[in-house]
Amino acid sequence: MKKEDKAIIIGKIADTLKEYGCFYLVETTGLNAERTSDLRRACAKADIKLMVVKNTLLHKALEESEGNFEEIYGALKGSTSIMFSNVGNAPAKLLKDFRKKDDVLPRLKAAYVEETVYVGEDQLDTLSSIKSKNELIADVVALLQSPAKNVVSALQSGGSKLHGILETLSKKED
After folding, report:
1. Whole-model pTM above 0.70?
2. What domain range includes position 58?
3. What stretches in the chain show pLDDT beneath 50?
4. String of DSSP letters for 74-115
């Protein structure tokens, strides 16, 4: 491969790294053509971009990008595919679902999520349990709505109790 071609590919990888908030490095060696196609389709449905890259080109793209990726460099061995996503836990959930049919592959090498590096297969459960930005916003909104709902409920139930008391008192006087 020519030096110019490598520079173009490194630039494309670096641009993609900037475009997405997180990425996962996975090993897909050993997947047959059918399973690889299934993985690509599953990624497309989940709005995850899957790219197979050479480790040296990815290493150079990471060096050119903003951020500290030194912990990831050790995972750049063997065949590497990158899963890009703007939702931190989406690739982890996809990998767990996809592996229900095949317990071993694809294997997580490393991940970069919300400026934190996760290295190793054992981090998959941790990554899948991380809440996405939208899930956190929904939790905050629910927490903010809870006191207001309690007040409205208390006012509504208090009104009916008060009505019942007044009605009972008016019947007693008669």
Report:
1. yes
2. 3-130
3. none
4. TT--SSEEEEEESSTTHHHHHHHHHTTT-SS-SEEEEEEETT
